[in-house]
Design goal:
The structure holds two protein chains of two kinds.
Chain A (H helix, E strand, L loop, with lengths): L2 H37 L4 E4 L1 H11 L4 H30 L3 H22 L20 H12 E6 L8 E6 L10 H9 L1 H5 L2 E4 L8 E2 L4 E2 L2 H32 L4 H15 L2 H13 L10 H25 L3 H9 L4 H30 L2 H4 L23 H11 L7 H34 L1
Helix pairs in contact in A: 1-16, 2-3, 3-6, 4-5, 8-11, 8-13, 9-11, 10-11, 11-13, 12-13, 13-16, 15-16
Chain B lengths: L6 E2 L10 E2 L5 E12 L2 E12 L3 E5 L6 H8 L9 E9 L2 E2 L7 H7 E4 L10 H11 L5 H14 L3 H4 L12 H14 L4 E5 L7 H14 L4 E5 L3 H7 L2 E6 L2 E7 H6 L4 H7 L5
Parallel strand pairs in B: 5-10, 5-11, 8-9, 9-10
Antiparallel strand pairs in B: 1-2, 3-4, 3-6, 6-7, 11-12
Helix pairs in contact in B: 3-4, 3-6, 4-6, 6-7
Classes of the chains: A mainly alpha, B alpha/beta.
Chain lengths: 448, 274
């Protein structure tokens, strides 16, 4: 080949490689940026006085004096609103009946919107649902709820050939010339003193239980559940996988049965995870009854099956990569097969086994389908380790899915969804970093 | 160095030459010993005796079966699934390929040093103590003594005594090979097999290993495979020349290198082929 051609080929190939790496980096950035940007919103945000009240009421956090002061100041700013409301109600009484009924519906809408923004009216009965007991706890939600108070959504169907168009109509128009008219302007102008936003680092998000199905509180049970499931899966998969790999590499004699087994293991790695989930339900729960309901135990076993092929494969490769010279040296000194494996082969293969283990750990942490039928529930409390044997648990991957598909107030819990995604990604990332560090340390020790 | 031992007697090995080690009894002997790799016969019906306390060199071109024969003595070929021996390999009156012979305990008595230094990725101390620990020696002082004496025997004690706990992989190739020798000696074997022990080493390290072989001569029966004919001439009392699986000639080293009986041997040692 001519030298120019060779050079051209080399250049073309290296630039191709560069482009693909660049693309990969770009994709990573595109994926991770919103996760980090929005996910951090669950931890760091501007909280309102309602949030502080909630924290004090349910977790006993914060200085009671200061919470009281906070509330009092907000109440002062809010007082004119309630004053205007009651003035308007008095005005209503004096109106003729026909006019009164004209205001009935818009007034109820205003009261609802106001309740969502500021919480229940002072003096009214405490609502049953917790989500109605507090106003907007986050400043970003405050903005949305303020808009909801100021404008009513209407749909314009005037053009019969097109889809309806959403029109925002100021509610103030419903109450022109009444005593309620200044309320809208007042709320808009005084929203800050009414809500008192303040930057907060809500790190307890990681540990708190959720209240009123994730509308308030944190993701503690989910994080704990994920950790239980992952550790449980490792507990079953790693010993079984490593022992299987040792058998395949060191004890088995190549033959039809063994190559068939290898094909089975590879196939198992390609089975869709939902099939594992169904198998887990059918076998662990319905056939051998490891527990009466879904449980962490059943989920762990199912996840263990899912990652077993990966663990076997990576361990096998790590064991095969151990130089034959080590084995020969041990045997020539009179070591038996078992002793050789325990003292020479496994220690040398450990970095590789560890890498495979942690990669599959990341997979186990993130898998949703296998736990749907075997372990996961939408809402729950943090479990004790002993309860994991018989109780189901919420878990991050399942709850991410659940919150965006089945939650009745999706808009209220966007930050929780992102926070969960962020936590899950961070958890997997942490595991990987841990693996890399461990691997480096062990390799260094081996290299001397 | 072996001049004094090379006395003039009737050889039991060749029957005709005057140089002889006949007073020595055979430590290991083979009778019609063959090794097959699948259908391929790598060692063909070899019959010979390796006398006790002497150094025997095995020479021959690549692929002649000398390494296979060497590894058959401590059954290292068992690791190769397709490998099948036939005939007899007698060590102290017993055929080591008998069903009731345990390869593991055989290997404790027949040590081996390999072509490439294969120290474990452990500390120098743990490398040496590996064999003794296997034999159940647990007491620290006993292990310490063994480590020291083995390292001294391998003439490496002075170089490593201050860093016994460092990783053995940090040593030079020559040091590693001597460590391997010390590790083999720590098991207190009767026979020491060496499979081209210096082929991966520089001349200086090679000299050290050769000197060591000279010092160990008499205490152990040493069988060494080598590609280096000068080395065979320098270190061995007896030399076996193998070609294509057959033992062509086996006799006193001086005789082989000065008056080879076979044409093939002469061609090989004079460098006409091989």
């Amino acid at each position: 080949m001519r030298i120019e051609t060779r050079r051209l080929l080399n250049r073309a190939f290296s630039s191709l490689g560069l482009i693909s790496i660049g693309l990969m980096a770009l994709v990573l950035v595109v994926i991770l940026t919103p996760i980090i940007a929005k996910g951090s919103g669950a931890f760091v945000f501007r909280s309102t006085v309602e949030h502080r009240k909630l924290m004090f009421d349910h977790w006993n956090r914060g200085n009671p004096e200061r919470v009281k002061q906070d509330e009092a100041k907000a109440a002062v700013a809010r007082a004119p609103v309630y004053q205007m409301l009651s003035d308007f109600k008095a005005e209503l009484e004096s109106m003729p009946r026909a006019e009164r009924s004209r205001y009935k519906k818009p007034l109820r809408a205003v009261e609802t919107a106001l309740g969502r923004l500021l919480g229940p009216n002072p003096g009214s009965r405490t609502p049953v649902l917790m989500r109605q007991q507090y106003g907007a706890t986050r400043w970003d939600r405050t903005q949305a709820k303020l808009d909801n108070l100021l404008y009513s959504e209407e749909w314009d169907y005037s053009n019969p050939d097109a889809l309806g168009v959403k029109v925002l109509r100021p509610r103030v128009e419903d109450f022109r010339t009444t005593k309620l008219e200044p309320l809208f302007g007042y709320v808009k102008a005084n929203i800050k003193p009414m809500m008192r936003p303040r930057w907060t680092f809500y790190w307890q998000f990681l540990f708190d239980t959720s209240k009123d199905s994730h509308i308030f509180g944190g993701i503690g049970p989910e994080v704990l559940g994920t950790i239980y499931l992952t550790l449980g899966a490792m507990l079953f998969a790693v010993p079984m996988g490593v022992i299987a790999a040792i058998y395949l590499c060191e004890y088995s004699r190549e033959g039809r049965v063994i190559s068939f087994l290898r094909i089975c293991i590879s196939t198992l790695a390609g089975v869709p995870s939902i099939v594992f989930g169904l198998f887990g339900l059918a076998f662990f729960l319905n056939t051998i009854h490891v527990s009466n309901s879904k449980s962490v135990l059943a989920g762990s076993l199912t996840l263990a099956l899912l990652i077993l092929p990966t663990v076997i494969r990576s361990s096998e490769e790590a064991i095969l990569a151990v130089p034959r010279a080590y084995k020969e040296a041990a045997l020539s000194l009179g070591a038996g097969r078992w002793y050789t494996i325990m003292t020479v082969i496994l220690p040398a293969a450990l970095p590789g086994i560890l890498t495979g283990t942690v990669i599959s750990m990341g997979r186990a942490a993130g898998e949703t389908a296998p736990i749907i039928f075997t372990a996961a529930v939408s809402v729950g409390r943090p479990l004790l380790p002993i309860e994991a044997l018989s109780q189901p648990t919420p878990a991050l991957p399942w709850n991410i899915y659940n919150l965006c598909t089945e939650h009745e107030a999706v808009d209220e819990i966007r930050h929780v969804q992102y926070g969960m995604v962020f936590t899950l990604v961070a958890l997997v990332l942490l595991l990987n970093v841990f693996a890399i560090v461990m691997r480096a340390r062990i390799s260094k020790k081996l290299r001397g | 160095m072996s001049e004094a031992i090379q006395m003039k007697r009737v050889s039991r090995f060749t029957g005709t030459e005057e140089e002889d080690f006949g007073s020595r009894s055979a430590h290991v002997k083979t009778e019609n010993f063959s090794v097959f790799y699948g259908a391929f016969e790598a060692v063909k019906k070899v019959t010979c005796e390796f006398p006790e306390g002497l150094v025997t060199a095995m020479i021959g071109p690549s692929g002649c079966g000398k390494s296979t024969l060497l590894r058959a003595i401590n059954r290292m070929n068992d690791l190769i699934p397709s490998c099948r021996p036939s005939g007899k390999m007698i060590f102290q009156g017993e055929d080591i390929y008998c069903k009731n012979i345990d390869a593991v305990s055989l290997r404790m008595r027949v040590g081996m040093v390999f072509q490439k230094p294969n120290v474990f990725p452990k500390s120098i101390y743990d490398n040496i103590a590996y064999g003794p620990r296997l034999q159940g020696i647990k007491s620290r002082s006993q292990l310490d003594d063994l480590v020291e004496s083995s390292l001294k025997q391998a003439a490496i004690w002075d170089e490593v005594k201050d860093r016994l706990s460092t990783n053995a992989l940090g040593m030079s190739g020559g040091q590693q090979q001597r460590l391997c020798l010390a590790r083999a000696l720590a098991v207190k074997p009767e026979i020491l097999l060496m499979d081209e022990p210096t082929s991966a080493l520089d001349p200086k390290a090679t000299t050290k290993i050769e000197d060591l072989i000279g010092q160990l001569r008499g205490q152990y029966t040493i069988i060494i495979v080598t590609h280096n004919m000068q080395q065979a001439a320098r270190v061995s009392d007896l030399t076996a020349f193998m070609y294509e699986g057959t033992l062509v000639e086996f006799g006193a080293t001086r005789q082989i290198f000065t008056k080879p009986r076979e044409r093939q041997t002469e061609d090989y040692i004079t460098g006409r082929f091989g």
